[in-house]
Design brief:
Layout (H helix, E strand, L loop, with lengths): L2 H11 L1 E4 L7 E4 L1 H5 L1 H18 L5 E5 L3 H12 L2 E7 L7 E8 L2 E8 L8 E5 L7 H11 L3 E2 L1
Parallel strand pairs: 3-4, 3-7, 7-8
Antiparallel strand pairs: 1-2, 4-6, 5-6
Subunit structure: Homodimer.
EC number: 2.4.2.7
Family: Belongs to the purine/pyrimidine phosphoribosyltransferase family.
Length: 150
């Protein structure tokens, strides 16, 4: 199946909900992608192809709470590398490092265990969308923790 066919399968599966969760926001619901094995595999295939073409060395994949948890582990398995969680504040045990950032409809704070990433590791962050630059803030977070993020 071509990349264009995979993109169309994904595009068709994603639903739009205007003015949710607040006026002016168009929420993209990925639930149908998760229900459909072909759509889900298409997402993972395209993520994998993009990463292999653009990032020759990846040591670990990090998933952002919570939708990064849906795609990240499958992608990490494809690369035969580890997966780590970046969670909302207060959800991880042990010592953590945290960062605050802006959402499309508010603010949030994320954290990860302080020893989750070793200095010099190449980290890929996985989330479901890029809306506000919050992911860019996460890149800064990883730089502060002495890793290399892609």
């Amino acid at each position: 199946m071509s990349d264009q066919e995979k993109e169309e399968i994904i595009r068709t599966a994603i639903r739009a909900f205007p003015d949710f969760p607040s006026p002016g926001i168009c929420f993209r619901d990925i639930t149908p992608v998760l229900k459909d094995p072909l759509a889900f595999c298409s997402v993972i295939d395209l993520f994998e192809k993009h990463l292999r073409a653009n990032f020759p060395k990846i040591d670990v994949i990090a998933g952002l709470d919570s939708r990064g948890f849906l795609f990240g582990p499958s992608l990490a398995q494809r690369f035969n590398i580890g997966f780590l969680l970046i969670r909302k504040k207060g959800k991880l045990p042990g010592p953590t490092e945290s960062v605050s950032y802006s959402l499309e409809y508010g603010k949030a704070e994320l954290e990860m265990q302080y020893d989750a990433v070793e200095p010099g590791q190449k980290v890929v962050l996985i989330d479901d969308l890029l809306a506000t630059g919050g992911l860019g803030q996460d890149l800064y977070f990883f730089q502060e923790m002495n890793s290399n993020s892609a």
